[in-house]
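Amino Acid Chain and Its Fold in Token Form
===========================================
What this section holds: a protein sequence and its matching fold, both as plain text.
Structure line: whole-number tokens from a learned vocabulary of local backbone shapes, matched to residues.
Purpose: to set a sequence beside its fold so the mapping can be learned.
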Amino acid sequence: MGTQSQEKALIMVYTGSGKGKTSAAVGQTLRAVGAGLKVAFGQFLKRDNQAGEQKVLKSMLENDFLASGIGFCRNKSELPKHRNGALKLIDWAHEKIRNSYHLLVLDEAIYALKMELISRDELQGIIDEASKAGTSIVLTGREAPEWLREKADMISEIVEEKHHFHKNISARKGIEY
């Protein structure tokens, strides 16, 4: 086992169609930081200074926070730019694991996987290295694949029952971003 603890590193997944996956990951981060754990929080796809939680995470985590994306992917021609951001975050994640972090959060990793911005092998490599190092990992995104569900120690499926978007109420600062 790695240098973190004799306890097993956990693989935790927040998935599903509902709103709140990132919020759950941020809550997990707050809990871990409050307990004195060393935490890194990375975001695939989301560009820096896009969402309210980013200001708080950057203030709290400083260089242990990275939003490497360029925002929404509008068409396939943007995929190479998104891929470059994803590669940056993959390298950053491996660096954090090698530096004995207790918890690594990879927000929208499952969505990046679904979009093929990262490969199964790349995500599996991060998970395997984290497990060996004793670093627990949180992954978020819709439609977690079966192989990840089998590997996970904890899965929270966040299901949309009702959403104000369906009433043509637009996204609001501080609520959706």
